[in-house]
Design brief:
Blueprint: H1 3-16, E1 20-21, H2 46-50, E2 59-67, E3 69-70, E4 73-74, E5 88-97, H3 102-116, E6 124-129, H4 141-148, E7 156-159, H5 161-164, E8 165-167, E9 172-183, H6 187-192, E10 206-219, E11 225-238, H7 239-246, H8 259-269, H9 280-300, H10 309-328, H11 340-347, H12 352-392, E12 397-398, H13 400-408, H14 414-423, E13 427-428, H15 430-448, E14 450-452, E15 456-457, E16 464-465, E17 472-485, E18 488-495, E19 497-498, E20 512-515, E21 520-529, E22 532-537, E23 547-552, H16 554-578, E24 584-589, E25 594-599, H17 606-621, E26 627-633, H18 634-640, E27 653-659, E28 662-665, E29 680-689, E30 692-699, H19 700-721, H20 726-760, E31 764-766, E32 769-776, H21 780-793, E33 797-803, E34 810-815, H22 825-833, E35 839-843, E36 846-850, H23 857-865
Parallel strand pairs: 1-2, 6-7, 12-13, 16-19, 32-33
Antiparallel strand pairs: 2-5, 3-4, 5-11, 6-9, 8-9, 9-10, 10-11, 14-17, 15-17, 17-18, 17-23, 18-22, 20-21, 20-23, 21-22, 24-25, 25-30, 26-27, 27-28, 29-30, 31-32, 33-34, 34-36, 35-36
Length: 867
């Protein structure tokens, strides 16, 4: 069976059992404060398990794109070094929300594996939860009894809490689980050692293929367990491992999930893949084909590589792949981007985002490859200097701080530094490097760490968002919890009627106040978590059950919603001016400005920017009324022409915002008519990533403020220039400045001529060589010209010029060509530059260095005399 057939058989089987087949959620999570990426199949169903949303069907099945590269579930370091760990993988799953439970889940799994897929029963083992006395949890006897009717009892294994009690996180739904393991070894291997001894012992051919989770508890923040009101089933089967089992392979990488990608790497690199675990070349190929999948799906779902958050994780994965291909496959030019087409052909039919976003994905990856390969080349120069200095200092270990700086500041892989150092007989301080890395991680954790307590529920009542229609409301707190972080103690509250818009869809969350006759609390931020609108306040009311008035900061909200509405008009105008290939790729909407990222492969011209501005402002002047469809079937919205964004997860019913011909699916707040926006002004247009342009703009009050400031500046310039014709006055100043600059340059050249004749006679004989060490106040350009002339005219000479022009220390070294094999200008300058607390470089014949310590020129002068 091909991997496509295996995937389809799974979905067809569960469809026949009454399950609704749903598409995979995006791999990147946009509005979940607890997770960056979908790391399991159940992520998109969290709200169902927590009771915050009603499931679309009691039985659901799907295949979910997952990414495990950070936090508790982190497989990154294992990828490439074994046969079955991956960053991105597919999780096949079937779900029951208060419908069937253990008996049916076990029966479905057994029938599918043995009956449909035909896995021999003698190759399977199952585990059940053995219980845990510390938690008052009994052995899962029900699961054991149900399994007995399918598999012999000697193949049912007791598992501990670590392996057989599944938890969503530190808190949340959890319960015992039953794993299914498959033994893929040869008959000879099985005869020597029973599979019973190898289950859950990291054997590459005795692997867990499916986990059936029986959710019946809720883990509270105080670590206690309480029964859920309904019992659920959450299963996850590793698609890649299943393909390995069904295709009779001993490695996931030998299945057709990976072989087309491996074949392409072989073609591009000229290296042959042999599948040897310890072979660095093979490890590199496995890393590359794994990582290209993770990066491609993340970019297709809207997450661009960047220096922070989820974008940093994606950049790190991609750079790891580039680093391995550079070091072990000899790939010095971009090539990973060429694998995207292979991935599209393999998976595009089932994951249309790859087909739709393929060009963008490959362009972004190519750009990142080019950038990081430059980083590696520049880093190699830095490493070489570091090695030379270490050797000169008669040391055997590269300085830890410099090695860490190469990694942390310049992005140079530490393992590459290690390899290069070892080639020169040096090492790096592994312990010191790990300590520096750990200290950095601890600092980062400390900055973001917070302790979140359990919810205190005052009333079980559905919370209602009223912020689309009003800026304030009478309300009361339905639940609250304490939060402690580095800034102090705060409280998160959920309100019965909340006018506060929660951060989402690019729009910032509302601020405001929560008050009554006796108390007032500042609302510092509003976010959404697991379907709840949560506002952060700076204290706990004495009477949390009292009636309050929630009031939004109106001026900030109005500015934010004006900026949000204008992004819709901007999106439409960009598509009209540049073409329908333009799609939103990210946005930020706040009260002060907006940022809009969109797909486009060229810098916009001034004419295009002006035309876009004009189109948007024309729509604003037309005073187009908002048409809001709060609960429209998604298919109807799309048929009407609404824009849906790739990487967003939409429900069956959506909210559609329409301003005339502009129609978008959007949950944000908006103006009632376009005239409320006031005026739209583009401040900048730049590159956000390969194939992605970024516009920053303002509207409303900020646009008015912008033009007032311009008017003030023009008035001040007019007074300063004593002219109303500012342009002509500045042109005249430029002409005068150019003429004066020419005169100054001519005077400098005359002065330099005088210096040259004087300096020629000032060389000192040092054995069979000549040395000139000279102090001057000439500028750097003049000094450079003189040194080049002297080193050409004076053979067997070294020239050292120390300048204090403009109060800044500068050292220039010239070595005549006939001494270039004996002395290196770059090495000499490095030693002298220490005296002025500076650095620099050059080539063997000429080098310069600037510094911070002007007084150090005297020490540098004396040191130079002793060359």
């Amino acid at each position: 069976m091909t991997s496509q057939e295996i995937r389809q058989k799974f979905l067809d089987y569960f469809k026949s059992k009454g399950h609704l087949i749903v598409p995979s959620a995006p791999i990147v999570l946009k509005d979940d404060p607890t997770l960056m990426f979908s790391n399991s199949g159940m992520t998109q169903f969290k709200d169902f398990f927590l009771g915050y949303k009603t499931p679309t069907a009691p039985r659901i099945a799907d295949t979910q794109k997952c990414l495990r590269v950070s936090g508790k579930h982190n497989d990154l370091d294992d990828v490439g070094r074994d046969t079955y760990h991956h960053t991105m993988f597919e999780m096949l799953g079937n779900w029951s929300f208060g419908d069937y439970f253990k008996k049916d889940a076990i029966a479905f799994a057994w029938e599918l594996l043995t009956g449909v897929y035909g896995i021999p029963k003698e190759n399977l083992y199952v585990t059940i939860f053995e219980g845990d006395a510390s938690e008052n949890l009994e052995r899962d006897q029900d699961a054991y009894d149900f399994w007995k009717s399918h598999i012999s009892e000697d193949r049912i294994i007791n598992g501990n809490k670590k392996d057989n009690f599944w938890e969503m996180g530190e808190s949340g739904p959890c319960g015992p689980c039953s794993e299914i393991h498959v033994d893929l070894r040869t008959p000879e291997e099985k005869a020597k050692v029973s599979g019973l001894e190898l289950v859950n012992n990291d054997h590459p051919q005795v692997v867990e293929v499916w986990n059936l989770v029986f959710m019946e508890f809720n883990r509270k923040a105080d670590k206690t367990l309480e029964k859920l009101p309904a019992q659920h089933v959450d299963t996850g089967m590793g698609f890649e491992r299943l393909c390995m089992a069904l295709q009779g392979k001993s490695s996931n990488y030998d299945t057709d999930v990976f072989t087309p990608l491996i074949a392409k790497v072989e073609e591009l690199s000229g290296k042959k893949y042999t599948g040897i675990l310890e072979d660095e070349k093979d490890i590199a190929i496995r890393v590359v084909v794994d990582h290209i999948r993770a990066v491609s799906f993340a970019i297709a779902d809207g997450q661009l590589p960047s220096n922070g958050g989820a974008g940093y994780v994606i950049r790190r994965i991609l750079r790891r792949g580039i680093s391995y291909s550079y070091r072990f496959l000899g790939m010095k030019e971009p090539f990973l981007y060429q694998l995207v087409a292979v991935l599209q052909e393999q998976m595009g039919a089932f994951f249309p985002e790859l087909e739709k976003q393929g060009k963008l994905v490959s362009e972004v990856i190519k750009s990142e490859e080019e950038s990081f390969l430059r980083t590696i080349e520049n880093g190699l120069i830095r490493v070489e200097k570091l090695i030379q200095q270490t050797i000169a200092d008669d040391q055997k270990v590269l300085p830890t701080q410099e090695v860490f700086e190469l990694y942390d500041t310049y992005g140079f892989p530490d393992d590459l530094t290690r390899i290069i150092a070892e080639e020169k007989g040096l090492t790096i301080d592994e312990k010191g490097f790990k300590q520096a890395l750990n200290e950095q991680k601890q600092r980062s954790k400390a900055d973001s760490a917070q302790k979140v307590y359990d919810w205190v529920t005052l009333e079980e009542k559905p919370e209602n968002f009223v912020g689309y229609d009003q800026f304030e409301s009478e309300t009361y707190i339905t639940r609250y919890r304490k939060v402690e972080n580095k800034d102090g103690e705060f409280y998160q509250v959920v309100l019965s009627e909340s006018p506060f818009y929660p951060e989402g869809g690019g729009q910032v969350g509302d601020k405001g106040v929560l008050e009554n006759a006796t108390e007032s609390f500042e609302v510092l931020e509003t976010k959404k978590e697991n379907g709840l609108i949560i506002s952060l306040i700076n204290g706990l009311p004495k009477d949390a059950g009292a009636v309050f008035y929630a009031k939004v900061n109106v001026s900030e909200r109005k500015n934010s919603q004006a900026n949000h509405s204008v992004t819709h008009l901007l999106h439409e105008a960009l598509r009209e001016v540049l073409g329908t290939h333009v799609e939103q790729k990210g946005s930020f909407v706040g009260p002060d400005y907006l940022r809009f990222d969109f797909s486009h492969f060229n810098k916009m011209t001034d004419e295009e920017l002006t035309l876009v501005e004009e189109k948007v402002n024309a729509k604003i002047k037309q005073n187009i009324a908002l048409q809001e469809f709060r609960n429209i079937p998604i298919q109807e919205a799309l048929e009407r022409g609404a824009m849906a964004l790739f990487g967003e997860k939409y429900g069956d019913s959506v909210r559609m915002i329409q301003f005339g011909t502009s129609m978008e699916l959007c949950g944000g707040t908006h103006v009632k008519s376009t005239s409320e926006i006031g005026h739209f002004k583009i401040i900048s247009e730049s590159s956000a990533a390969a194939g992605i342009r970024r516009i920053e703009a303002i509207s409303g009050d900020k646009a008015e403020e912008y033009f007032k400031n311009l008017e003030k500046q023009i008035s001040e310039l007019s007074q300063l220039l004593k002219s109303k014709d500012i342009v002509r006055s500045i042109e005249k100043l430029i002409e005068e400045n150019t003429a004066l600059k020419s005169e100054v340059d001519a005077l400098k050249k005359e002065k330099a001529k005088g210096e040259i004749s004087e300096w020629k006679g000032a060389y000192e004989q040092k054995g069979d060589k000549l040395l000139l060490v000279k102090r001057t106040s000439l500028d750097a350009g003049s000094v450079k010209d003189i040194v080049f002339q002297l080193k050409k005219e004076i053979p067997t000479s070294i020239t050292v010029i120390l300048s204090d022009a403009d109060g800044k220390p500068m050292i220039t070294v010239g070595v005549s060509d006939d001494l270039a094999g004996i002395y290196q200008a770059g090495a000499l300058i490095k030693d002298l530059a220490k005296e002025i607390q500076g650095g620099g470089g050059g080539n063997p014949g000429f080098a310069t260095a600037g510094g911070k310590n002007l007084d150090g020129l005297e020490n540098a002068y004396q040191k130079a005399l002793n060359l």
